[in-house]
Each structure stands twice: as structure tokens, then as C-alpha cells.
Amino acid sequence: MKLYTFWPMLKKEFREQNRTYRLVISVIVFLSLGISAPIITWLTPDLLKNLGNGATIILPPQTATDALNTYLKNMVQLPALVLILLAMGTIADERSRGTAVTILTKPVPRSIFVLAKFLAYESTLIISLILAASGAYYYTSQLFRPLPVGSFVILNIGLLAFLTLTLALTILCSALVRNSIAAGGMAFVGFLVLVVVPNLNASISRVLPSVLFRPERVAQLAAGTAPLGETLWPLLVGLGLAGLLVALTCLVYHYQEI
User: Fold this and answer.
1) Which residues contact 113 (CB under 8 A, 6 or more apart)?
2) Which class for 251: exposed (0-12), middle (13-18), buried (19 or more C-beta within 10 A)?
3) CA 237 to CA 227: how far, in whole Å?
4) Helix, strand, or coil here: 146?
5) What pLDDT digit, counting tens, does each position of 72-116 carry?
6) What are phi and psi of 145, to 5 degrees?
7) What's the pLDDT tens digit per position in 171-195?
8) CA gap 73, 198 in Å, rounded
9) Whole-angstrom distance, CA of residue 29 vs CA of residue 22
């Protein structure tokens, strides 16, 4: 990789994200979801009592594991959609506006053009996820009990793998078409496939990161009884698929007419 062209491209992407407030939006959404998960779990029994209209609603005592499950459910849904909305125009918009032509007439390989965009958004994702996880862990510790650190880290790596896969799919869709709305629609369909297909096929579900977010697997990780192979394999597959999608984006964009 030609670092003398890669670093300026990466700095350009960071400046673009700061100028359009993409980093700020991502951090606010992620952090809000991370903090709200344990708080909502803590307040759920009282909220149900107020909504009971005279009926008695009995819930088992809420635990740190319940807060963790709420956190994972929140982080799988809205953050993925936010990533799609933020990244769907990353290549498509530059092609439609003609700025990609200006950049690529300089000695900038197309693969570096794509990788700089992916790594800039991946950095935004990592920063946002670390803040969300820190908020969720702190408030869960305050309201319930501290979560097992090792299990919590593994689950957040699983979230990173899942969201990275969604991001890589979005950037691929942005490279395939010139319209950011169309790219976002394609990426959203791909995201639905990632969410729905594992529920329909047990063999597929075992190799995707989303298997780690199932309540029974979360309970195993919290108890330290989850098999190591069944935990590491989905993480490796998720990150590997994301890498393949980025490589495919570089290949597609290399032969594409700008």
C-alpha cells in the first residue's frame, strides 16, 4: 500500500466526517442506546405497574443479564441502520457529483480510495461502540452488578463483527450504483438478510456473529460455560466476510466507469 497516498485520503475522509457531523451523530446514537439499556431494564417493572390499569403484572427481578440482553438487542438494530444511512453515499455521492473523477485523476489507486473510506467509517464505528459499551457497563454496574468483563468484551467484539459486516456491505452497495438512496435500499435489504436468514437455517446461524446475541448464548458467556470454538468461529467468520466484501468492493470499483 502506498502510504504517501493513503494517509492524505484517510485524513480527507476524517475531515469529511467531522464537517458533516457523521462522527457526532454516530457517537450520540450509540452512546444513548448503551446508557439507556440498563436504565430501561431497571425501570421496566415500575413502568408495567403504571400501565397495568388495575391488573397485577408480576415480573421476575430484573438482573444484569437482562440489562445485557437489552443492550445487545438495541445495538443490533438501530446502530446498523444508522451506519447504512451514514455510509450509503460514501462512494455513490462522489461519483454523482464528479469529485471521484477529480481525485482519481491524481496518482491515487482506486483500492486506496475505497480502503480509506472503509477505515474512516470503521474508526467511527469503533469509537462509537467503545463509548456505548462503556456507558452500558457503568450503568449496569451501578444499577445491578458488574458484568463479567471477559464475556462483555467478547459480546462487544461480536457486535463489532456484525456491524463491520453491515458497514462493508453498505460500502459495496455504494460502489455499485451512483444513487445513494438506491445504495441505502440495497444495503438495507442485505441487512435484513443478515438478520432473518440465520433464524431460518441453523447451519448458517452457527457461523454468523448474531448467534452470540441469543439469550441462551449470552447466559452461557456470562456463566463462563460457552464453548470456545463456538464463540470464536462466528467472530472470525463475521470479520472474514467483511474483509471479503471490502476486497470485492475494491475489485468492482477498479473496473467500474467513473
Assistant:
1) 9, 100, 103, 104, 253
2) middle
3) 16
4) coil
5) 999 998 999 999 999 999 998 888 877 777 776 677 788 888 999
6) -150, 160
7) 999 999 989 999 999 999 999 988 8
8) 15
9) 11
